[in-house]
């Protein structure tokens, strides 16, 4: 593939990055003499971060992505015979199911800020969708700008064996998280680094608290002076006697001239648990996850959880789904099919599925109003269509507004066709 001038050697191509890496921050802190070894760079070590990631990824991966087509009457229906339907329903490539593919893609977008999917084409049609490692991709943008330029954005990828690949912008389905320029995204953890570290510190503190047999810090008072080595030796000896689960509840022997005083600020007094709960809410808010989804029902009731589920769709998932639909439609469907009315859309029925009584009441309204056919309703419930069920049904007493009272506009001497029932 011949590269444009700005990507050839000594060119002025500008690689787009999303800021400092954790290693950069770690090196900077170490240069200031600050230790960073207590906390892992992997934010998945945060229980709340992992839970929010899992909730977001599962929500996206279980939604069916349909191939839809607009009809001449302004409606739309699923085209199950379109070649993309099987690819998006079962296996986007030979190695992944569609559920695993969508889960991993959403994970890449949240964890690294960007998810890259290569659309492998054969004879003008998509033959497979392959998820690329976001950490091995570099996006190049022409420093002259992107306005009115067809080849201004290129994707450079290096596989695990060091083999380089170059992709045009129309070959990559690029989903972005928290994008500021529309070209690349930013990972959630970039905004949450300090908050997640607070949770990790609190978790580490609680772990140490239990490992010490629920024993806090203590002051050992003694008479005399000792050098640093002797103090450290004495500290180690006393910790073996009083610290740890095996010493919990045991009697502590104290020699003459020594006195132990507890120095243990109470967790309640320091509002430890209130601050920990605030940290969890901050992480959940960054993901758009509702607190009841994290099993925190302190502010939830039976009546408002259904409303919170709707808010979960409108406040959090709708933006992600619309972004995916528009990007995938433009990159995976040919221009001719787009002009013919084809597009991709997520089926939200499973997400909005209510209890059986509410569903059947809604179905009744849809059928009696001529909006849905009985077979369409049966299909939503996983039942086989029946003969005659493909017809729309309406109440016979319903007529167009302009025909209201037409039965009473009779010529002189004429008879009305309205029959009055006999008493």
Explained architecture:
The protein is of the alpha+beta class. The chain has 3 domains: 1-212 and 271-351, no CATH class; 217-263; 354-397, no CATH class. 37% of the residues lie in helices and 16% in strands. It has 11 helices and 12 strands. It has helices at 22-31, 47-61, 83-89, 98-112, 188-211, 228-242, 272-287, 302-332, 335-339, 356-368, 374-380, and strands at 14-16, 65-70, 76-78, 114-122, 125-132, 137-141, 153-158, 164-168, 172-176, 217-222, 258-263, 342-346. A 4-stranded antiparallel β-sheet has the order 1-6-7-8, with no helix packed on it. It has a 3-stranded antiparallel β-sheet with strand order 3-2-12. β7 (153-158) and β8 form a beta hairpin. The chain starts with 13 loop residues before the first strand and ends in a 43-residue tail after the last helix. This is Phage portal protein. It comes from Paenibacillus violae.
């Amino acid at each position: 593939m011949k590269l444009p001038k700005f990507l050839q050697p000594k060119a002025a191509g500008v690689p787009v990055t999303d800021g400092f890496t954790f290693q950069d921050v770690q090196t900077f802190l170490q240069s200031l003499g600050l230790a960073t070894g207590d906390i892992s760079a992997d934010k998945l070590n945060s229980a709340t971060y992992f839970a929010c990631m899992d909730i977001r990824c599962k929500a996206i991966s279980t939604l069916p992505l349909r191939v839809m087509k607009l009809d001449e009457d302004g409606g739309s229906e699923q085209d199950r015979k379109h070649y993309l339907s099987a690819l998006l329903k079962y296996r986007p490539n030979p190695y992944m199911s569609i559920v695993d593919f969508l889960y991993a893609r959403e994970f890449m977008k949240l964890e690294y800020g960007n998810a890259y999917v290569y659309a492998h084409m054969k004879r003008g049609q998509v033959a497979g969708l392959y998820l690329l490692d976001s950490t091995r991709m570099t996006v190049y943008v022409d420093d002259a700008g992107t306005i009115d330029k067809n080849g201004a954005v290129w994707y450079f990828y290096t596989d695990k064996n060091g083999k380089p690949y170059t992709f045009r912008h129309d070959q990559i389905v690029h989903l972005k998280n928290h994008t500021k320029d529309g070209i690349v995204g930013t990972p959630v953890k970039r905004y949450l680094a300090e908050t997640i570290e607070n949770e990790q510190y609190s978790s580490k503190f609680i772990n140490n608290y239990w490992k010490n047999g629920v024993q806090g810090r203590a002051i050992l008072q003694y008479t005399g002076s000792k050098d640093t080595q002797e103090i450290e030796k004495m500290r180690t000896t006393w910790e073996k006697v009083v610290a740890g689960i095996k010493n919990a509840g045991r009697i502590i022997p104290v020699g003459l001239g020594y006195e132990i005083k507890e120095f243990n600020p109470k967790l309640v007094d320091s509002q430890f648990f209130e601050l920990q709960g605030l940290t969890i809410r901050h992480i959940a808010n960054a993901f758009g996850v509702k607190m009841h989804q994290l099993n925190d029902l302190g502010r939830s009731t039976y009546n408002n959880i259904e409303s919170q589920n709707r808010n979960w769709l409108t406040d959090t998932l709708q933006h992600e789904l619309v972004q995916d639909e528009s990007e995938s439609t433009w990159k995976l469907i040919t221009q001719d099919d787009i002009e013919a009315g084809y597009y991709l859309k997520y089926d939200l029925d499973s997400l909005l599925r209510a209890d059986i009584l509410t569903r059947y009441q809604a179905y009744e309204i849809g059928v009696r109003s001529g909006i849905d056919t009985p077979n369409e309703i049966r299909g939503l419930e996983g039942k086989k269509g029946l003969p005659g069920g493909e017809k729309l049904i309406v109440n016979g007493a319903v007529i167009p507004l302009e025909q209201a009272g037409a039965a009473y506009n009779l010529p002189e001497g004429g008879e009305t066709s309205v029959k009055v029932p006999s008493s």
